[in-house]
Amino acid sequence: MKTIPSTQVSQRYWWTLGLRGLLAVLFGLVAILWPGLTLLVLVSLFGAYALVDGVMAVVVAFQERRNARLWWMLLIEGLVGIAIGVLTFLWPAITVLVLLYLIVSWAIVTGLLEIAAAFSGWLPGTHKWTLALAGAVSILLGVLLAVRPGAGLLSLVWLIGIYALIFGVLLLVRAFQFRHAFQPGVAGSA
Fold first, then answer.
1. What are phi and psi of 68, to 5 degrees?
2. How many other β-carbons are positioned within 10 Å of the β-carbon of residue 75?
3. Rounded distance, CA 84 to CA 106, Å?
């Protein structure tokens, strides 16, 4: 059985990173432009985002389990996203504090897995920084929310919106890096 290098896997599925990035940017814009959203709407938006992002990560992980040595990291990240998304829909009247700690858990776990993946050796050297930076931004969000739980819903909405925008832009950058990484005639191609 022929194994495809992980760089070709990343190039082939660049559009999933782009779609994840676009969803994150859209979610961030909604959170920033309409800060007076009710808790129920915020819970629903976050739950939908975490669920869709998780499903997409799981699909790619299973599709690439024979080609990517560390496919299970993406699988775990996706399963955590799905679990957090489902929990937010099961308890729509969730309090701000419980929502806060669901988001804290999701952001920290996602960030740790992204940093681990960035330094695992399966990404080209020039592409590691975006994944590591996205992981650091995720962890930073989780820590900030855990340390300042009384910051209020408006602050929470803005923090989540800013995080989603930054994270989404970084995913879009990664998507286009992978799309163009190995095209003939493109600088940096192998």
1. -110, 125
2. 19
3. 7
- Pair 107, 77: CB distance under 8 Å: no
Rounded Cα–Cα distance for residues 105 and 138 (Å): 10
Cβ neighbourhood burial of 37 (10 Å; 0-12, 13-18, 19+)? middle
pLDDT for 98 beyond 70: yes
For residue 51 the two structure tokens come to 């669920």
Measured distance CA(69)–CA(17) in Å, rounded: 19
pLDDT over 90, % of the chain = 23
- Span between the terminal Cα atoms of the chain, in Å: 23
- Cα separation, 46 vs 99, in Å, equals 9
Structure token digits, residue 189: 């191609």
Give per-residue pLDDT as tens, 29-86.
888 887 765 556 777 878 898 899 999 999 988 988 888 778 888 899 999 999 988 9
pTM of the model: 0.49
Other CB atoms closer than 10 Å to residue 64's CB: what's the count? Answer: 20
